[in-house]
Amino acid sequence: MVCAAQEARVQVAPIFESLRFLTIVRSRMTIVDIYMRAQIRDFQSTIVAAGIGLAAVGFAGRYLLRRMPNLSQRMAETVKKLDSQSLANSKYYKGGFEQRMTRREASLILGVSPTASKSKVKEQFKKVMAVNHPDRGGSPYIAAKINEAKDLLEK
Predict the structure, then answer these.
(1) Can you give the pTM of this predicted structure?
(2) Does residue 131 form part of some domain?
(3) Max CA-CA distance within the chain?
(4) pLDDT tens digits, 130-150
(5) What's the burial of 45, exposed, middle or buried (CB within 10 Å: 0-12/13-18/19+)?
(6) Do 116 and 142 fall within a single domain?
(7) Rg (Cα) of the chain, in Å, rounded?
(8) For the chain, what is the HEC assignment?
(9) Into how many domains does the chain fold?
């Protein structure tokens, strides 16, 4: 005759086996769970950061739209106050290159007087060419004009 304790052991044993299997599976899944939870956490923080950024852009846009009438009036007043003559007489040369280079144009390119000595022209050429050399990001066309100016002034 089977006693109650043996019968209980027989019924309990499959339960313990299934629990042991679950603990093995669960221990294997924890590595995956940890990875997935980290991925989800990263994704959630990205979404939160994007939401904060969009809110900041929205508030800035709202602020600008409310202030725009005042800004446009101030800009119009400021432009009227500016002296157009001072803007027209800037330190930069207006216009392009002439068909044939003259001594005046060559001296403007190198930044020397038209009657400068050869040593002064050579010294200024080195300075200007160091800044505008094509190997250092300068324009080949400008470099050719600088060389042409040096040749003309050294004659």
Answers:
(1) 0.42
(2) yes
(3) 130
(4) 999 999 898 999 999 999 999
(5) exposed
(6) yes
(7) 40
(8) CCCHHHHHHHHHHHHHHHHHHHHHHHHHHHHHHHHHHHHHHHHHHHHHHHHHHHHHHHHHHHHHHHHHHHHHHHHHHHHHHCCHHHHHCCCCCCCCCCCCCCHHHHHHHHCCCCCCCHHHHHHHHHHHHHHHCHHHCCCHHHHHHHHHHHHHHHC
(9) 2
